[in-house]
Amino acid sequence: MSERVVLAYSGGLDTSVAIPYLAEQTGGEVIAVAVDVGQGGEDLDTIRKRALACGAAEAVVVDAKEEFAADFCVPAMQANALYMDRYPLVSALSRPLIVKHLVSAAREFGGTTVSHGCTGKGNDQVRFEAGLSALNPDLKVIAPARDFAWTRDKAIAFAEDKGLPIDVSAKSPYSIDQNLWGRAVETGFLEDIWNGPTEEVYDYTADPAAPREADEVVISFAAGVPVALDGRPLTPYQIIAELNRRAGAQGVGRIDMVEDRLVGIKSREVYEAPAAIVLINAHMELENVTVERDLARFKRSVDQRWGELAYDGLWFSPLKDALDAFIADTQKHVSGEVRVTLHGGRAVVTGRRSDASLYSYDLATYDTGDTFDQSLAKGFVELWSLPSKIAAKRDRDA
């Protein structure tokens, strides 16, 4: 059997050209693998036919939208994952899922090499290859854009020379990656960090400043998993898709930031993540109601580290596995409902309730019916302050 290369295939120019190019470079057959993570665009059958027309020996297409929502987006929400406190890991979450299916295809078709379209300047090369190393360390990797200096101009010329059935004329001024969890936009005039994004940059969100009526949504959670909107039972995928529409229509989820890339450079990124921002805000508030104070404090540090691991391509690492187990345990009481008002680019929590709530009205109220024994407070404060008091006296008398 000749060598087989498993290619992460998007259906666009670069990966379509990669099919005959990799066949020439390796003398082997190319297996194209396209994974639908809710990025929209062409249907899977069209993408599969294009891969075969470009010379793929086989083309595998995977509808992974439900899997992506349940196994990748939901865990990110449970970890309140916001890299640098802002970015909800849009691209970072889809890469390990794609890697999983690349490894599966390599196993099924006898692939010895995996190929992706990443350059040497981005994070995704790390995410693909670190994931591949964890799931099948015997696989070799080829990245034409990085390893062979494969530019767009070369790709267009190669496509025209081979008569490949793809459009080589249109090109967005931006580099765009999108999926169910959000949309990432970079390059073009955005590389000047003084330039403000213009409205044509956005697609998932409407202008937040446009006048409109507010939208109110009630999100139900069961053990940290979103299970319903406004009382309607839905899957995580359905919930994310609907919130993308509703929150996006209110301009929720726009992020403009300079980000610390894993490869050591700073990069200007514009993101749209309507559903992600709404769900993380709602989930954090329900945790405030249902998770005990010291556990919640410690979880915040775990959440940050979890987000860094996902961003850094270490989804399949031992540390992340351990943090997953910790976070899963913290979610057992995170059940209830959160009311969120969507308006003017903001998602504001206005109500929360849970049968597992640790909030006690009788303890919190300042009105008649208060059951908090304030007589105990004086001694508590004195004992709590005692170490600082003793140290202050020592320093004063030194």
Automatic annotation (TrEMBL):
UniProt entry tagged with the keyword ATP-binding: yes
SUPFAM superfamilies, alphabetized: Adenine nucleotide alpha hydrolases-like (SSF52402), Argininosuccinate synthetase, C-terminal domain (SSF69864)
Domain Arginosuccinate synthase C-terminal as annotated: residue spans: 174-390
Top class in the EC scheme: ligase
Domain Arginosuccinate synthase-like N-terminal: 4-165
GO molecular function: argininosuccinate synthase activity; ATP binding
Main subcellular localisation: cytoplasm
Pfam short name (any one): Arginosuc_synth
GO cellular component: cytoplasm
InterPro entries per the UniProt record, alphabetical: Arginosuc_syn_C, Arginosuc_syn_N, Arginosuc_synth, Arginosuc_synth_CS, Arginosuc_synth_type_1_subfam, AS_cat/multimer_dom_body, Rossmann-like_a/b/a_fold
Any single GO BP term: urea cycle
Residues binding L-citrulline, per UniProt: 87, 123, 127, 175, 259, 271
Reaction(s) catalysed by this chain's protein: L-citrulline + L-aspartate + ATP = 2-(N(omega)-L-arginino)succinate + AMP + diphosphate + H(+)
Subcellular location: Cytoplasm
EC number: 6.3.4.5
Positions contributing to L-aspartate binding: 119, 123-124
Family (UniProt): Belongs to the argininosuccinate synthase family. Type 1 subfamily.
Name of the protein in its database record: Argininosuccinate synthase
Organism: Actinomadura livida
